[in-house]
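Module 6 notes. Inverse folding takes a fixed backbone as the condition and produces residue identities as the prediction. Think of it as a translation problem where the source language is geometry and the target language is the twenty amino acids. Below is one complete input and output pair. Work through it position by position during the lab.
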């Protein structure tokens, strides 16, 4: 092809500098993505593995300490517990809890994996008139009992209160303030994590009616038998931890007469705090 003397052939010159700058931007972006991924992975490992390992070890150590102490210095057995110092009464609550926000004697808000199983605990109440006050009453957040669920292979300490930091995150099961003491007439209501921090109630959904649950205290061991299971209810369904437990969201679940009940609550489904799983048991011995 001939080119006249008056025409010019266009020449395209690629800029090496621009290509290098683009490569650097891509490299920095890739490094940032990888770094973020590693950080997220470490956080997941910490939450799902390390917190479980740490909390389980602390909880099992607390069980050993309690049972060693009880074996060395057992209390006199109580043949007829009767109404306990934690039983509900008609007296004015010392520290009422807002059923919507959970303020008061309940714990504060938490992350989905660490949210207390019910947003509002029963209010802490004074002992009923004439009720004997137990001088060995433990301090708040102190472990005072050992819960065993053979079907789940679970052995875990029970502490007073449902504080996330001082009870639940230690791998313990928490005793709702204002609910009955173990073996007493009323509702001995407990909360536990479903995931992370020891996750003692992770497999609570595997319980079936007829399963036995034991609660050991210094005085004696109480045995309950699973009776009803409420697979899903709202976080604000505080009726499930009342003295005569009955769901206010699903009224067909619960009881009509006073008795010695055990209530176990946790979040459901796993890795979520959208709903609550509730297991009820009755005292058999």
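Target side of the pair, the amino acids:
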């Amino acid at each position: 092809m001939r080119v006249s003397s008056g025409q010019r052939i266009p020449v395209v010159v690629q800029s090496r500098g621009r290509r290098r700058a683009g490569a650097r931007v891509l490299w920095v972006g890739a490094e940032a993505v990888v770094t973020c991924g590693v950080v997220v992975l470490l956080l997941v490992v910490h939450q799902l593995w390390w917190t479980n390992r740490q909390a389980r070890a602390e909880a099992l150590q607390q069980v050993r300490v309690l049972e060693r102490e009880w074996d060395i210095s057992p209390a006199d057995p109580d043949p007829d517990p009767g109404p306990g110092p934690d039983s509900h009464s008609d007296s004015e609550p010392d520290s009422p809890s807002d059923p919507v926000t959970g303020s008061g004697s309940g714990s504060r808000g938490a992350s989905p994996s660490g949210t207390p199983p019910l947003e509002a605990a029963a209010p802490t109440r004074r002992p009923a008139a004439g009720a004997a006050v137990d001088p060995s009453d433990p301090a708040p957040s102190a472990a005072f009992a050992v819960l065993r669920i053979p079907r789940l292979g679970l052995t875990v300490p029970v502490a007073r209160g449902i504080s996330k930091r001082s009870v639940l995150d230690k791998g313990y099961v928490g005793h709702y303030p204002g609910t009955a003491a173990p073996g007493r007439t009323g509702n001995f209501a407990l909360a536990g994590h479903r995931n992370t921090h020891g996750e003692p109630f992770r497999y609570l959904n595997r319980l079936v009616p007829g399963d036995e649950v034991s609660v050991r205290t210094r005085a004696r061991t109480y045995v309950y038998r699973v009776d009803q299971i409420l697979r899903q209810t709202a976080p604000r369904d505080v009726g499930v931890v009342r003295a005569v437990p009955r769901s206010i969201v699903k009224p067909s679940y619960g009881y009509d007469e006073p008795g010695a009940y055990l209530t176990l609550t946790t979040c459901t489904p796993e890795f979520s705090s959208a709903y609550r799983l509730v297991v009820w048991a009755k005292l058999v011995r």
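Reference fact for the lab report: The radius of gyration is 28 Å.
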